[in-house]
Amino acid sequence: MTYLTEMQTDLEFQQVLLKVQESLTVNEVQDLVFLCSELLSLKDLSTMSSAGQLFSLLENRDLLSREDPSLLLELLRILKRNSLIRSLTSEEVMPTNGTTYSRLISTYRQFLYELSESICEQDLKNIKFLLLKTLSRKKLEKDTTLLQLFLEMEKEGLLDENNLDFLQKIIADINPSLGKRIIQYKTESFKIDIVKEQVNRLNLTEGADVASRDQSQNSVTENAEIPQYEMKGDKRGVCLIINNYDFKKCRLRDRDGTDIDKKSLEVVFEWLGFEVVTKQNCDRHQILQVLRDLAARDHTSADCVVCCVLSHGKIEGILGVDGKIATYRELIETLSPSQCPSLFKKPKLFFIQACRGTNDQPAALPQIFPDDEVMPVSDAAVPRDSIPEMADYLLAMSTVPNYVSYREKHHGTWFIQSLCYHLKMLVPKGYDLLSILTQVNSDVSKKTDKSGLKKQMPQPEFTLTKRVVFPPPKTHTP
């Protein structure tokens, strides 16, 4: 293609965009801004006043071009502008052959858009009334659209892909049929998560079998044919510990005993040769930011990275001390190869002290523990998605799905204390990490409270491709 021909083709594509711009209403432009809010920064979108500005920004971000106009077609499809799509694809500059929708707009954002299309003006007024004590009056002005309200709710941490409960409560009070649609969407999304988890379990089961064989044979040499990650770097790596104790701001109980876990982890991982970095009482933003800071480091000379998170939790993930949730996927994807290239093909090890459900809550047995000093308490949470579809991750959870894990005020948590003990005992003997975690499983499964009713079973999930074997430290025990 000659330079002149290329310029002509570029001009034709810009004419197509101009045609689209002239065909859209003001409300449709606002709809496009909402739909693109996951692709562009809110700061950029806040000053958006025309479709032309939006298209220019998408082009600058390499999300839209004459070679790949699929995002434009996807957006128009969501807006149900089918006649405009037919008109555009009849143009030579946007042929139908080979052109598919880009699927860049998430199912979650499409669902919110479709929900907004079903809300009448009176329903919107009622929604704003219910939000009077939640959002500022300025954000509830007469001309504020429902999609703009959704964005404000997301900013406040009241709404996200994994948390539709608050929205469901408001909508169901005003329009029960739409409330049922939200429930249906949550159910379908959960089923998709279950399918993904079952696929992951196939690999996890195979890995667990290997670890079990290793333990029963009690022989390191028989594992020689299974490769292990290199542990010969100048530094073993960074061990980040996020220790959340003070939850007064969100009216949750303080996590008494967590400092015992923190100290145990600091001692053991320093002994193993790690640079230990401890962060205290992090809110959601700070949790993700310290992980981003960790990802920004140069890990070229390191062997691996460790992240220990000690906190309360809910169904969607870990709670910051502000009561807002950082999902498990958000935690671990901060260290993905795209975010941290220097950790590519190196093990990324996460140890999470939090429950994975609410079954067997300690509050059900107050008569058994009249002295609160010895009463185990839980940090309940259920991660709906955890290990990402990437290699070289370990996510060691303190308990299996749907059950709590326990923390004692003067002894720390069952899981973390057992983990630290067995690292000290078994690393010098050459045991790999999965074999050590198998022993932790065995140890914790035998623990119970004074009533004999509280039980706990840890569970590692992983996409490790080799064995993790820490070189024995020079001193036998820390």
Major beta sheet, specifics?
6 strands, mixed
Q: What is CATH's topology name of the largest domain? A: Rossmann fold
The strand count comes to: 12
Helical stretch count? Answer: 16
Second CATH tier, the architecture of the largest domain: 3-Layer(aba) Sandwich
Classification by helices and strands: alpha/beta
Q: For the terminal residues, how far apart are their CA atoms?
A: 68 Å
Helix content, binned percent: 40-55%
Return residue spans where pLDDT drops below 50 for at least 5 consecutive residues.
95-102, 194-214, 219-224, 361-374, 381-386
How large, in whole angstroms, is the Cα Rg? 26 Å
| Principal-axes shape call | globular
Element string (H = helix, E = strand) = HHHHHHHHHHHEHEHEEEEHEEEEEHHE
Describe the structure in brief.
With 478 residues, the chain is of the alpha/beta class.
